[in-house]
Each structure stands twice: as structure tokens, then as C-alpha cells.
Amino acid sequence: MSARYKEGDSVRVRTAYPPGHCRTPFYCRGKSGVVVRHCGEFRNPEELAYGAYEGPLTPMYRVRFEQKDLWPDYDGSARDKCEIEIYEHWLVPAEGADHA
Amino acid sequence: MHDDHDHHEHHHDHDHGMYEVDPLHYHPPQPDLEDSKLTHHQIMQMAVAELLIEKGVITADELRAQIDFMDSITPARGATLVARAWTDPAFKERLVADSRKAGAEIDMELGPIPILVMENTPTVHNLIVCTLCSCYPKMLLGTPPDWYKSRSYRRRAISEPRKVLAEFGTTLSDDIELRVHDSTADMRYLVLPMRPEGTDGMDEAALARLVTRDCMVGVAVPQS
């Protein structure tokens, strides 16, 4: 599976609440950030949790968020960031972002 | 605190009398390991381990040896890499680019899970947390401390990291970008702290002793 996003791309985390095991933290759902690294392809943990050890792998990225975007009452420095590992199917292009 | 004196909830202002051991002054014994009920996951873990051995997938000795190895890992492993990076800029570049390959150069096995080395600079400070569970670079730091696994650290290190750092005695200026890494999936993280001032004459072994576990999680910075 080829990676849809590359370093520097603006992305948004889908606002979704599927049942079952998933490794996308609640606090970043619906939030926008920037891809800082494509980490490679991995098993989708949502399928892996139920024993799916075969099939295609899923690209996974590190996405950087502004802390003030994640926490409305964040009281640290305006420079502060948070970086999270997110699987491709959780990402959509950020509004206004230009993706091929 | 869980020391031997947990059960001393009463005050020792009464007289013990003439006896060294007062039969009326009862100290309940420390509970044995078997006194707490097994959890569902403990039972499952024991059952899976027994099955793997019974079916010949692994031997009991292999299982024991792996636990023995994991328990033998201390933060000194991570510190060795950091001290080498401080004294060899080319090694530092390779460590940040691919820690597994850099570790192999000095015969250090980093295991199957990629460990990303996050370099502190005069303008960026890194902090590691796993908000979903307790992912930790065990191959370089050993078993995580209890606070790292606590709900309090996991919640606060992500939402109010500067307050958490201050409680660990680490104050960052607002000019410094604090970058929190949530270890949510297939990567693990190690902070590469900055080499402290006044350490120019120190050799690699002496430098490694300055690099503590807390510095490599990012809640502290090395002191010379």
C-alpha cells in the first residue's frame, strides 16, 4: 500500500468513535496537524486486536499538533507541540490543503 | 509508600512494657504474593505460557531466559548510547537517523520495535508519554517506573506537561518548544538530552553516569 501523505502535509484526524480496540487517542480526533514522518507500514491495530495477522499493511505517520489546538485551556508556551502516531485510515486532508 | 511500616497506622506513644515483644501488640504480617486474587489477565498470561511450553513452541528455559534478560536491562544501556552521541557527532547523526543500526555498531541489540531518538536542543525539549497504556523503550531503559504507568502522568504529561515537568524539578523557559511524544502505536521513544556545561574533560564512561532514566524520558535534564 503506497503512502498517501508525505512529510509537511496538513492533515486532520477523522472524528469517529468506532467500537473495539483502536490506538487513535480521543483528544486528537477532529484536530488538524502536520505530517512530520512516514514511519512505514504496519498492521492495523484495530484488526490485529482480533487476530488478523494477514492482508495488506497500513501506512502510519507521526503527526505534529499545536498543543493549543488540542487543549482549549492549554497554559504552556504557544510554541509547544504534541506528536502522535496515527494510521492512514484515520487521516483526511486538512481543509484547504492541496493533496494529489 | 509501600515499605515494611505500612501497617503501623497507630501511634507509638504507648509503653511497650517490660516485654521486648508484647503479645497484645499485634502486627499483621505483610501479605504474601498469593494473598491477592489473580486477575483475569494474569490467569490468561499463565495459561498461554503453559500452552506455549506444552505445545513445544518455546521451552520453559527460553521463557525464563527472556524474562531474566528483560529484568537485567537498566537505563545504563540508554546512557551508553547518549554518552557516545555526546562524544561522537557522526554517531549522534546515525543514532537519530536509525537507532537500531547505530546500536548494532557497538553490539547493542535494540529489539524488533523501532526506537526513535529525539534530540533536545537549545530550542526544543522532548518528553515521552504513552497515554493509551505504558509503551516504553524497555530495550534501552528496562522496566518503567510506576509513575510512568500512572493515569495521572499519562493524562497530565500530555495536557499540562510544563506543570508535570515543574513537579519533577524541571523548569523550561517559554522560549523553548516543549514537544510531547505520545507513544501510541508501533514506535518507542528515547530522549537524547543535551550534554551539560562543564563536562569537557570527561570521558564517555564518566559522561554516561550523568545520563539518568528521567533524563531519557525527558522529565529531567542531566546535571554535571
If you had to describe this structure to a student in words, what would you say it looks like?
The complex is a heterodimer of chains A (100) and B (224). With 100 residues, chain A is mostly beta strands. Chain A has one domain: SH3 type barrels. Chain A contains 2 helices and 5 strands. Chain A has helices at residues 45-48, 67-70; strands spanning 10-13, 32-42, 58-66, 81-87, 91-93. The two termini of chain A are 16 Å apart. Chain B is mainly alpha-helical and 224 residues long. Chain B has a domain at 76-217: Nitrile Hydratase, Chain A (Alpha-Beta Complex), CATH 3.90.330. Chain B has helices spanning 40-54, 60-72, 76-87, 89-97, 99-105, 138-141, 146-149, 151-159, 161-167, 204-208, 213-217; strands at residues 115-119, 124-129, 177-182, 188-192. Chain B has a two-stranded parallel sheet with strand order 1-4. Chain B is globular. Strand 4 (81-87) of chain A pairs parallel with strand 3 of chain B, so a sheet runs across the interface.
